Amino acid sequence: MTDHATDVALFRYSLVRALIDESLTKAERGRLVRALAERGHVGPGGAEVRVSRPTIDRWVRTLRNGGFEALKPEARHANPRTPAETLELAERLRRERPERTAAHICELMRTVSGWAPDERTIQRHFVRAGLSRRETRPKVAFGRFEAARPNELWTGDALHGPLIGGHKTYLFCFIDDHSRVFCGYRWGYAEDTVRLEAALRSGIERRGVPEAAYLDNGSAMISRQLLRALAVLGVKLHHSEPGRPEGRGKIERAFKTVRGQFLVEVDPAEVRTLDELNSRFSAWVESIYHRRVHSETNEAPIERFLAAGPPPIPSPALLREAFLWSEHRVVAKTGTVNLFGNRYEVDPALMGRRIELAFDPFDLGHVDVRFEGRPMGEATAHVTRRHSHPRAVEDPAPPPEPTGIDYLGLVTARHHEALEQKIPYVELPDSEIASDIVVFHPPAWDLATDQPIEDGSIEEEGR
Length: 463
What we know:
Blueprint: H1 2-16, H2 26-38, E1 41-42, E2 48-49, H3 53-66, H4 84-96, H5 102-113, H6 119-129, H7 133-136, E3 154-164, E4 167-176, E5 182-188, H8 193-207, E6 212-215, H9 224-233, E7 236-239, H10 249-262, H11 274-289, H12 301-305, H13 316-322, E8 325-330, E9 336-339, E10 342-345, E11 354-360, E12 363-371, E13 374-378, E14 380-383, H14 407-420, H15 430-434, E15 437-441, E16 444-446, E17 451-454, E18 457-461
Parallel strand pairs: 3-6, 6-7
Antiparallel strand pairs: 1-2, 3-4, 4-5, 8-11, 9-10, 10-14, 11-12, 12-13, 15-18, 16-17
Helix pairs in contact: 1-3, 4-5, 9-13
């Protein structure tokens, strides 16, 4: 309110300051006042306003008698219409339970006394009294954290990307907290477990196994198949608390760099397939982002990651085992189990037992059988209705290259060309012209006897 009053006073002063000059005659001052009253002025709020002659005269007298401070508008002193005891009760209810909302407090007072002020009235009162929920929430200081070494902590998240080939794209990415290296990343057409595991597996194959992973609570991040993969690899999993994304600042800042330096250069007209997008992103990450000095660490991410030497890479057998999907089934009396519509035969000794079926989600033709952690051979498929897991959907194939043939356009052009051609009658031979016209002469008729006088005739004539 103080700033607004000052702005109003400055506006008024800018209009009348020239009118208090003692050297002006009464006629000259009158002409200046009329000129000010006839045109519009930019007011304190930026809108155009007009000021009448009496108002200008009053401002001149105010400036002469009280100076600049007298030009400020008086503060409003409205008497509150809400009883003081009602506002006091609202304060007591808020202090008793700070998590109570203004709407709930109004409902409480309405239940107790039969009446309550408007919700906005209570909210404004809480702000004036310093009882707003933002101010009453306990202040927590979040210190800056950084992992002490590479592969101590990976942070994973998903970024929504552009439309490529008519489909929306998503980037799954894992960033090393110590070096800011993009360990694993992959663009896909779906935000699901399959694409998340593809990004994680590519990162582990190149950068090693992290000690811990920090993810949010998205459906792909909490899937049972991902939990199994991390458990096999010995990776500790941490989830951020819902509504508290603290600790994810590094990857969010990295995504801002991706948007501002990579996605801004992606033209969907040129990058038409997912493979092209992944290829260009990999080139940008490895040759630009990883090689440039990071503003926070003052080192290039790849140099900081490899400062202690290359990390150990797990064996292909361990990687395959980690990223197998598994389901548990009870073996029927027939020695068979059902899995996503398929029926498999297992060792008859497992009848009535709960077993684990491990499989590649994209190949249900080979299913390993485990019982209490021990391998029990491979299940034999009897009935096969599906060849892949229902959620294991490949990315759609890129659209075929256009042939450039416009069939309807060709038909239309040929039709218009035929309409524009004219028949050259002058160049046609006489025999052809004469045969084109046939003349019929009707017979003559005697009206008195009602008999024909002569028969009709037909003859050909030329044009």
